[in-house]
């Protein structure tokens, strides 16, 4: 039996956690510290990352019973969208939207 943990969920040999990043960091890319069972690990998040994207940290999960290898630590990214924008932020986002008109705002 494994005790429930607020930071981590377990699925077989894999550990699952979540990290929340601001919208701008998701668009431009960033680096975040992820808490693992072994301590903090730095994770590079590339520009254009969408909410729900899962990154795999290999060999950072639960050790296999037979002693060979470990599962992975899976990190799900949640992109935080601001609830309220000030006038300057709205203006900048409107300019951004206009700059992408006709091309699709979020081309993949």
Look at the helices and sheets and give the structural class. Answer: alpha+beta
Supply Rg: 18 Å
What fraction, in percent, of the residue positions are helical?
Answer: 10-25%
Beta-strand proportion:
35-45%
Major sheet description: 4 strands, mixed
| Overall spatial form | elongated
Number of helices: 2
Tell how many strands the DSSP assignment holds. 6
Helix and strand run: EEHEEEEH
Query: Would you identify the regions where 5 or more consecutive residues have pLDDT less than 50?
Result: none
Structure, described:
By secondary structure, the chain is of the alpha+beta class. It is 18% helix and 37% strand. It has helices at residues 23-28, 87-99, and strands at 9-11, 14-22, 29-36, 39-46, 54-57, 73-80. Strands 1-2-6-5 form a 4-stranded mixed sheet. The chain has a two-stranded antiparallel ribbon with strand order 3-4. A hairpin with a 2-residue loop joins β3 and β4 (39-46). The N and C termini lie far apart (43 Å). The model has no long low-confidence stretch (mean pLDDT 89).
């Amino acid at each position: 039996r494994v005790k429930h943990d607020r930071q981590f969920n377990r699925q077989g040999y894999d550990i699952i956690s979540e990290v929340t990043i601001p919208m701008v960091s998701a668009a431009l890319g960033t680096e975040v510290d992820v808490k693992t069972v072994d301590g903090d690990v730095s994770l590079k998040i590339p520009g254009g990352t969408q909410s729900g994207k899962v990154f795999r940290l290999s060999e950072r999960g639960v050790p296999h019973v037979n002693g060979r290898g470990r599962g992975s630590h899976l990190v799900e990214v949640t992109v935080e969208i601001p609830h309220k924008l000030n006038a300057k932020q709205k203006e900048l986002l409107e300019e951004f939207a206009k700059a992408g008109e006709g091309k699709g705002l979020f081309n993949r």
